[in-house]
Design a protein that fits this description.
Number of domains of chain A: 1
Order of helices and strands of chain B: EHHHEHEHEHEHEHEEHEEHEHHEHH
Largest interface: A-B, 32 and 27 residues
Strand order of the largest sheet of chain B: 2-8-7-6-5-3-4
CATH architecture of chain A: Alpha-Beta Complex
Shape of chain B: globular
Helix content of chain B: 40-55%
CATH architecture of the largest domain in chain B: 3-Layer(aba) Sandwich
Number of helices of chain A: 5
Radius of gyration of chain A: 14 Å
Order of helices and strands of chain A: HEEEHHHH
CATH topology of chain A: Sufe protein. Chain: A
Distance between the termini of chain A: 46 Å
CATH topology of the largest domain in chain B: Aspartate Aminotransferase, domain 2
Number of strands of chain A: 3
CATH class of chain A: Alpha Beta
Oligomer: heterodimer
Strand content of chain B: 5-15%
Helix content of chain A: 40-55%
Largest sheet of chain A: 3 strands, antiparallel
Number of helices of chain B: 14
Strand order of the largest sheet of chain A: 1-2-3
Number of domains of chain B: 2
Distance between the termini of chain B: 38 Å
Shape of chain A: globular
Structural class of chain A: alpha+beta
CATH superfamily of the largest domain in chain B: Type I PLP-dependent aspartate aminotransferase-like (Major domain)
Chain lengths: 131, 388
Amino acid sequence: MPDPWSLYSEKVMEHFKNPRNVGEIENPDGVGHVGNPVCGDIMELYIKVNDGIIVDAKFKTFGCGAAIATSSMVTEMVKGKRIEEALKISNKAVAEALDGLPPVKMHCSVLAEEALKSAIENYLNNSPSPP
Amino acid sequence: MQRIYLDHAATTPTSPEVVKAMLPYFTDAFGNASSIYSYGREARGAVEEARTKVAELIGARSEEIILTSGGTEADNYALKGVAYANERKGNHIITTSIEHHAVMEVCKFLEKRGFKINYLPVDKYGLVDPDDVKRAITDKTILISVMHANNQVGTIEPVEEIGKIAREAGVCFHTDAVQTLGHIPVNVDKLKVDLLAISAHKFYGPKGVGALYARKGTRLVSFMHGGEQEKRRRAGTENVPAIMGLGKAVELAGQEMGEEAERLAYLRDKLIKGLGEKIDHIRLNGHPTRRLPNNVNVSVDFVEGESMLLNLDLEGICASTGSACSSAILEPSHVLLALGLPPEQAHGSLRFTLGRENTEADVERVLEVLPGIVARLRAMSPLLKTQK
């Protein structure tokens, strides 16, 4: 039942209720760890990379509904993307893919972007040769 | 889906008897209480009757009751009223670090205007030490403000002891009784308070009405300037239906409070015990015994409050959290931090506040639903792993 006064879009709630790609990847090629307990959001993002393509992504998140939904959405968005394409995913794109976020929750989409960038950075630092 | 409302500290449903008492004053007895003809006299009679009921419940005289738009106004009036009436006498105010925003933000406002404020710490249960109050008093102290019970963690403060200290020092003493009036006994002489804030919608009255008790002789500057209402202390045409609602709610609370508190305390303890048994890494916030009969506040490790609330809401259960993930500052509840909780535990807090329509079945439903929610959220929490 749509609720016009709800804080979140139906899409956010759908991802919150059924988050995609929850968990960790064993022997990941990159891990991003962002956020802190003071602000109440902590995200961990794991990626598996094959031939410069992100073949798998998983997350673990401590946070509010928006934090969980943006984590879920960003993992969906990066799967199958080349590293250089994935680096272009902005927080706005994540928020838009969720049909928007309330202004006070935009920081969650920033966190999702940062988690992704940090995982990719970690991968690039670890990979023996440039992709 | 049947909804279970467990946020009575936020607001309560207006009792049907209260609504019934209010209704005639919208249409039939609609007069302005300042008018001298019959319509006006009817309204005046209603206002004064309600005022007397409030006074009787708290052991005050009716002329000591100032009707307000609610608890926030009553707190604002008490603090600003005393501060500006005593500017020449002193500029020092003592309060606590766990007050409701209706007191805390007024203190911050006054601080910017040259008043000196002491925000006293509390112990891990949220209790203020009366000795701290005693030590903080200086010859410039004009007001002490300590809440009767905390709205978030339910801890009942030693107001009576503090009242004794304030009286001995000759300092005006205010308490925010918004969470206690109508739930536990409140008597202004026993508590030794000079000012006390009341809000009707916290005990089955309507929103938008409350009162400030001001002991005879307490110096206050007027809060609202205009007509002669409330002896010129609070101008504005009386909200007669709401005031009638306040009066009726006070009357009902006086009759039902004792038994209801006992019933709620039983449900509260059942919920606290059940949560402890069914969920590991969970702790009670606030005092184990000096506690409001309807308040349960717990911190659930490794999970964030809003995500628990959203899941509970999907099951029809309405509760509250001290996590401020949705506020602009992103800081968790100042109360939980003042109790010494680390931020992640403050973010993982849940508050259930019981009320008149809740039953044992409601408590059982929470105990049935919450463990699964916590387990699901913990499975996706990066905090749990680091603890392994």
